[in-house]
TrEMBL record:
Keywords, alphabetical: Amino-acid biosynthesis, Asparagine biosynthesis
Catalytic activity annotation: L-aspartate + L-glutamine + ATP + H2O = L-asparagine + L-glutamate + AMP + diphosphate + H(+)
Annotated protein name in UniProt: asparagine synthase (glutamine-hydrolyzing)
Protein EC: 6.3.5.4
Source species of the chain: Actinomadura violacea
Pathway assigned to this chain's UniProt record: Amino-acid biosynthesis; L-asparagine biosynthesis; L-asparagine from L-aspartate (L-Gln route): step 1/1
InterPro entries assigned: Asn_synthase, ASN_synthetase/amidase, Rossmann-like_a/b/a_fold
Amino acid sequence: MVEFRVLPDTAAAAALDLPAAARFEHAARFEHASGRPWIVGSWDRESVVSAACGRDRLVLFGPADTTPGELERVLARVRSVRDLDALCGRLAGSFHLVASIGGHVRVQGSLSAARQVFHTSLGGVTVAADSPASLPGDHRVDEELLAARLVAPWPPWPISETPLWTGVETVPAGCYLEIGAAGRGRPVRWWTPPEPHLPLADGARRVRRALHDAVAVRARDVKTVSADLSGGMDSTSLCFLAADEADRLVTTRWEAADRADEDRHWARLAAEDLPAAEHLVLSRATAPTWFDGIADPGPEPDLEGPFAWIRTRARLTHLARRVAAAGSATHLTGHGGDELFLGNPLNLHTLARTRGGGAVRHLRAYRAMYRWRLLPAARALLNRDSFGGWLAASAGTLTDPVRDVGGAPAFGWGIAYRLPPWATGDAAAAARSLLRRVGASGVEPLAPLRGQHALLQDARLCGDTIRRVDRLTSREGVAWHAPFVDDRVIEAALAVRLRDITMPDRYKPALSAAMAGIVPARILGRATKSEYSAEAYDSLRRHRAELLELCGDGMRLARLGLVDAAALRAVLAAPPPSSLTLMPLISTFACETWLRAVERGRVPNPSTGGPRCP
């Protein structure tokens, strides 16, 4: 597990190092050439690659396809932190990069937010870290932002990744944090999305190479690798790649609540073609279900913010313990594959402008699938809203009824965001105000094309969650990796021509073509995806009493005036017939359990004497 704080090369910054020992037990450190503290934290030697050349320093935390010797050669050529762009643009893996060159510091995470950079300013000095918990200062919960976190299934970017702690910021996507010689930081853009220009065959080769390298860098010098084998194309692809790279492969699969679940069939087929691997099936008789232990924050709660996968927290811990007992400290998950490779109807908006009549075939296919009427579909394709305008307009529909997907499409910059019916009027007013203010601020999308923006937003949401899962499972000695959201894999997915991946009659065409010859054809032929309604309803029945207790008289969200606890209890007592309407429960309970953990976990800040985040 890696935790660190980054300081500029100034006397004022050095003074902030004094309380570090209170945060980092068994603290490790790197120093600037001046001898002042540069990086302070705790980490395993195996998770770090570092080099020095003269007065310049470079450190990478996390799996990275490089060596100290290569980093030394890079440092010998660079003259500024900007000169590291080329290195960052070619390395496989998922890592934080921290450099000290010519008195300037560069701190960078990943495109997906699986490696995020947080920073704050204290006494005019910018301090960066891998989590808010590692930052000094007196930080409080922003209740307006908390109201927006009730939006289901998640709030839109950039609100989705704005820290809930006042005075804490994140580095924008595609940027690094540069801290100058005076100690003040600013974000600098180093990456922009590639044009979707590659034909499917060429794009598939690039995806194949990127995924191979992403798995290989994690399997290097590791005796045992474990990996999900759910039966889906994403996890299955990683298992076959890992089987070629790892000395020993252990796969894991959850026993489903639904006896008609297709995943078990496809997972068994894959297991037959992986005879050298060991296959763990996690039985429902002994494994936790969704919402198990949801009210218990545990001995070391993660106080960064609400945890998107709060419903499966106990299952993740259970799985980590099982694979650790099997000898694995490196686990691969297929999360991120849907975000990158499922066809996105928003691409029709771009195709209609770039290919004109060439997009008719795509539009006809989607109309047949979703029963779109022609005139509403044509009207939606003519939408020219800016990202900021769309975001502000979304504020006005937060409490509208959920619309059926049939009839008329929406080709805005994202999905239809909704507040749950148990959100109060105050919560709705706060969320609307925030969306309108951010929309009017001149905020730019993650990419100029709507489909690419949506892909990047989803990849960053996935990466953000994977970062939090890794923090959880690392306490059990298991690092959690999602190769699909590595930088090089994301770039490869973005570079494939839109007309080749947007037809709805082909399931994940870029991934399927990339894995041809690696994954058996009979498995790549799967064109369906399981859903988990049975798991949701069964788990709600099992844990209804525990969930009702969370929304009783002591409900923290109700005390803040953000949730009507009685309305929430009514939904739990009589769950709606569609599992889609249950999604807001997840974000609500994520916020509630986080607030309770914050209440228990706040401790005096050794540098200020006030409450510390977290």
